[in-house]
Write the structure tokens for this entry.
Amino acid sequence: MTDPPPSSPGDPKLHWQDATIAAITADTPRVKSFLFAPAAPIPFRAGQHVDVRLTAPDGYQAERSYSIASAPERTDGIELAIERLGDGEVSPFFHDVAEVGDAIELRGPIGGHFVWSVEDGGPLLLLGGGSGVVPLMSMLRHRAAQGSHVPALLLFSARTFDDVIFRDELIAMHDRNDGFKLSLALTRDAPRRAEDFGRRVDPAMVAELVARLPAPPRHLLICGGNPFVEAAAEGAIATGIAPAMIRTERYGG
């Protein structure tokens, strides 16, 4: 089981640039999506992230890393989904202050470990908890943009049905019957769909997900908070998936 190595924002190829907020969308009560139009294109691979830097009038700066939600094929900008954190310095600004037309500094792309492209093949098993679904969404949007039929399954764990980020888009992807399947694990809500669960991720759930794929997964990527990542990875290992094929990315504690 492998986590991505620390990113290297000191890479001389990376530099800060202004990006204009082109659109803001409310995804859930706690998450908004922001479409940024950078001054220069930011080519990236699905699963990578960018750094965001805010500078206060007194010169104080705050930086945060956010995974890219959009597909690499999108040409009008890059999308970041930002969850409001009660004790955060950056997310409250985006939720309460930022407006369309504002210029924000971005740097990237960063990261090359937690990525997937259609050339990598499948089956693909994605396990996401909360805002950890964001880089996985980029992979699924990339798959759709390429017209790929690589077998893929996403388990998205959220508190309630209303907390499912990108919910309508994900359900529409599932309904296309092109080899992608969506399962929701709602920890504080009853399941609404036959494919969904009403509990936290556990080994039995992971085993059932693997059985829904046409063949054992060739790639397994897990992203979320530490407790979710640990539970999902342990469940995958208990199912017989080799630790070496599990890639993880962790969001906070």
About this structure: The domain at 17-109 is CATH 2.40.30.10 (Elongation Factor Tu (Ef-tu); domain 3). Residues 175 and 181 are 8 Å apart (CA to CA). The chain is about 20% helix and 30% strand.
